[in-house]
Amino acid sequence: MKRVLLTGAAGNLGRELRARLTGKFDMLRLSDLGEMAPADAGEEVVQCDLADEQAIMQLTEGCDAIVHLGGMSVENTFDVILNSNIRGTYNIYEAARKHGITRIIFASSNHVIGFHERETKLDATADMRPDSMYGVSKGFGEILARYYFDKYGIETACIRIGSSFEKPRNRRMLATWLSFADLTDLVEKVLSADRVGFAVVYGASDNKQQWWDNSLTGFLGWKPNDSADDFADDPAVAKTHTDANDPATRYQGGPFAAAGHFED
Fold first, then answer.
1. What is the CATH number of the domain that holds 232?
2. How far does the chain reach from its first CA to its final CA, in angstroms?
3. Which residues are catalytically annotated?
4. Exposure pattern of 227-259 as b/e (b: 16+ CB <10 Å)?
5. What is the pTM of this model?
6. Of 3, 47, 79, 174, which residue is least crowded by CB atoms under 10 Å?
7. Is residue 241 included in any domain, yes or no?
8. CA 44 to chain centre
């Protein structure tokens, strides 16, 4: 991979991946609608709106692979979700098709399956049960990726990211936490694999609490090294109040499953 495009480079995960991936390729092209730090050696910085079809065509030209983190990362109005997550992801895949880009990492989310109960262990074949319009948009992205692989041979790894922060912030994250280092390693594994096909990977570190099973994507060779259990005694985690009947506790999507409709 000579030139890799990273969308969403101004976001929390985008900034982390930028710092960790710069220098791994001949060029890392960074894009976001928001402000980004100036380009360093081995970087290109392009401010771009994912909903702008022509701008995305220019953004993707000359790239060998795309790490697509861009879009709205939380619940919002349908119009915002439509432009950033649905239309924006479509524009990325259409541009990839037209430019002959054959490998994409799509930042999906655990909120695609957020209305499964915590007692149910899920693998890549689990039914989508989104807990929000945000989750619906990520489900759309996964189905779109499936279509572009079957019809055009564009390989995608859909990473259903759990909770990727510096450390777990609550008891739920003892199961869903994904360290920055483990995420970076997964991205590198996907970009360097001989073949990816269409793959769904759950993005969680090596936590004792396991809601998700990645055995169907073991061919990628990704084995997380970090664990949320190292933070189990952190006051923010240990003292979190939980109610077994609260939808935020019952369902894997946590507070997204418990929240009402965004526009009500």
1. 3.40.50.720
2. 46
3. 134
4. bbeebeeeeebeeeeeeeeebbbbbbbbbbbee
5. 0.96
6. 79
7. yes
8. 22
By the 10 Å C-beta count (0-12 exposed, 13-18 middle, 19+ buried), 53 is classed as: middle
| Nearest alpha carbon to residue 171 among 128, 201, 120, 207 | 207
Q: Is residue 85 one of the residues assigned to a domain?
A: yes
Query: What is the count of structural domains for the chain?
Result: 1
What number of other Cβ atoms are within 10 A of residue 130's Cβ? 21
Note the pLDDT of residue 262. 83
- 141-180 residue pLDDT tens: 999 999 999 999 999 999 999 999 999 999 999 999 999 9
**β partners of residue 200:** 158
- What domain range includes position 173? 3-258
Neighbour-count burial of 200, counting CB atoms closer than 10 A to its CB (0-12 exposed, 13-18 middle, 19+ buried): buried
What is the per-residue pLDDT across 33-86, written as a single tens digit (0 to 9) for each? Answer: 999 999 999 999 999 999 999 999 999 999 999 999 999 988 899 999 999 999
Overall average pLDDT of the 9-16 stretch: 97
Is 206 within a domain? yes
| Contact present, 102 and 156 (Cβ < 8 Å) | no
Confidence of residue 264 (pLDDT cuts 50, 70, 90): low
Task: Report the half-sphere exposure of 246 (CA within 13 A, side-chain side).
Answer: 12
